[in-house]
Amino acid sequence: MKKLLFCLVAGAFLCSCGVTVKSPIAGAIFTDMVSGNAVTSNKLATKVGTSTATGYLGLIATGDASYQTAAKNAGITKISHVDERNFSILGIYTVYETIVYGE
């Protein structure tokens, strides 16, 4: 019984540490970076909208990090460009944020 419990706990820890966010560069312990994702021919504007998805322990993921939601949150109808923010601590807590710029 102790061996089974040990294997389950060890497996849970090993699985959660292997989960990372989508990122061009990811740190095994900590990741916090912003990178470009998409560009259009529309002119640069001052409105900025965000949308977020969050993950816990590599077991639960929730949220809406879509371009559409980010644009809607800021009242953007013409997207100029899109960035993404990736944040992770040991794969236990992860955040993926879409940042939309436009008018």
Please give the domain count. Answer: 1
**Number of β-strand runs:** 5
Overall radius of gyration: 17 Å
Major sheet: arrangement of strands = 1-4-5-2-3
Strand composition percent: 35-45%
Number of helices: 2
Largest sheet: 5 strands, antiparallel
Molecular structure report:
The protein has 103 residues and is an alpha+beta fold. The chain starts with a helix and ends with a strand. A 5-stranded antiparallel β-sheet has the order 1-4-5-2-3. A hairpin with a 3-residue loop joins strand 4 and strand 5 (93-102). The chain is 23% helix and 44% strand. It is elongated.
Sum up the structure in keywords.
103 residues; alpha+beta; five-stranded antiparallel β-sheet; 44% strand; elongated
